Amino acid sequence: MEISSNIPRGWSFYDLDKVDSTNEEIKRLLKKNKSTPILLIAKKQTKGRGRLNRKWVSLEGNLFFSFAIDFSELSAETISYLVSVSLINSIDVFLLNHKKEIQCKWPNDICFRGKKIAGILMEVFNSGKIVVVGVGVNLIQTYIDNSLYLVGDLSEFSIDRKALMFNFCNEFIRQKLNFEKHGFGYIRDIWISRARGIGSKIIVNLGHNQYTGIFRGVNNKGSLILEQYNGEEKIISTGDVIFISGV
Known about the structure:
The chain is an alpha+beta fold. It has two domains: 12-193, BirA Bifunctional Protein, domain 2 (2-Layer Sandwich), CATH 3.30.930.10; 201-243, Roll (SH3 type barrels), CATH 2.30.30. The chain has four helices and twelve strands. It has helices spanning 22-31, 76-92, 161-182, 184-193; strands spanning 12-19, 38-45, 63-70, 102-105, 109-112, 115-125, 130-137, 201-205, 210-218, 224-228, 233-236, 240-243. It has a seven-stranded mixed sheet, sandwiched between helices. A five-stranded antiparallel sheet has the order 11-10-9-8-12, with no helix packed on it. The model has no long low-confidence stretch (mean pLDDT 89).
């Protein structure tokens, strides 16, 4: 796949110096009746967020952008997998001979050499007709204290943040067409082929509860399949995965 440096046709693009959150800035644009698709990037974020309202450390030089699309014909699960597959594919082209070292981590993180280098945040807007997707990728040396996961970066590859963003957007469009032609199973199979830790022992933390077992993949709705030690399968739609064996 070649690197695409073009803004997708029909997308509105905003290139800002500083925002509180790229997701919040896009939602303000939507409230002003700006039409989708919208793409927005910023050099600095002062209140970046991850899943479960966790703080996302936004070092200048890293990539953080958001986009908004109509998803009335797509489920939230479908978009999550579309974004993950598109992101890992778009990063691939910059990694030369290191593609095997980058993996998808359920539900929507990207890891490099076992460390988290990218995260995705999805928020519905306008009664579920529009989804706002925030993407953060560590492109420079990134150290975060007291993180839930090991944190890594792609600093050794000197990736231009806008080049990666535009490459992602065009790859997302391509994978969305693949989904429309082949269905969710096609996207899920790509994700599984790049998934971290299938067959490994994991803990899935749900906040109020946690389950332990073997990660057996994901089902046709994108939920995690956990084989518990008593032999029963547990289907989990959201949660934090911790690898027991250090995969």
